[in-house]
Amino acid sequence: MRFPSHRVWSCLHATRRRHGARTVFPLLLACLWAVSAPPGHAADRPVRILALGDSLTAGYGLAHADGFVPRLQAALDARGDAITILDGGVSGDTSTDALARLDWALGDNPDAVIVELGGNDGLRGLDPARMEQNLTTILDRLQQAHLPVLLSGMYAPPNMGAGYSQSFRAVFERLSHRPGILWDPFFLDGVAAHPELEQADHIHPNPAGVAVIVARMVPLVERLARRP
């Protein structure tokens, strides 16, 4: 990480005048932290990351403690990360539904956003072009709000046919190339098509499957929290 040196020294100069030269070293550390914290993020509170998603985020079919958000939070806490995950998952949500509630979901003033959507669009065979329009609008509005984004991709169910699956997947491939996007190719990577990691519906992860997802996502979430 590169620090803006002029801001560090300006901070240090101001604090030396108030507190004296004997406290230069601890004040320098404080100044380094202050200028490296994400914009809009106070240095005395954790980075707040909204998980905007559907039933995969909401932990459908699982005890609350076994859901994606609680398990991700527990993993980050165990690593000593000053990160709070805000649960914005609603079971059954399509990209249209998530767009409609975006303003409400942002009401907790997150510093960054994980976007996990598209699964229900695929299950219902909805038009991939409409999904792309919705996701593009969501990403545009997050960009306008200066919120870093981790976009997690999705595949359509294979029974929808090869043509639909290709069009569906191409949406995420295009969105992954947006400037500034942190990209996770497939939210269910390592879980889909592994019955021992799935619930009986062969769609949603069981607790062991959630553990696989969380293990993969933790480094990405840490990178997201460090993004300006």
Automatic annotation (TrEMBL):
CDD domains hit by this protein: Lysophospholipase_L1_like (cd01822)
A Pfam family the protein falls into: Lipase_GDSL_2
Signal peptide: 1-42
InterPro entries in UniProt: Ester_Hydrolysis_Enzymes (IPR051532), SGNH_hydro (IPR013830), SGNH_hydro_sf (IPR036514)
Record key words, sorted: Signal
Occurrences of domain SGNH hydrolase-type esterase (ranges): 51-211
Domain of life from the UniProt record: Bacteria
Molecular-function annotations in GO: phosphatidylcholine lysophospholipase activity
PANTHER family: THIOESTERASE 1/PROTEASE 1/LYSOPHOSPHOLIPASE L1 (PTHR30383), THIOESTERASE 1_PROTEASE 1_LYSOPHOSPHOLIPASE L1 (PTHR30383:SF24)
Record-given protein name: Arylesterase
Species annotation: Gluconacetobacter aggeris
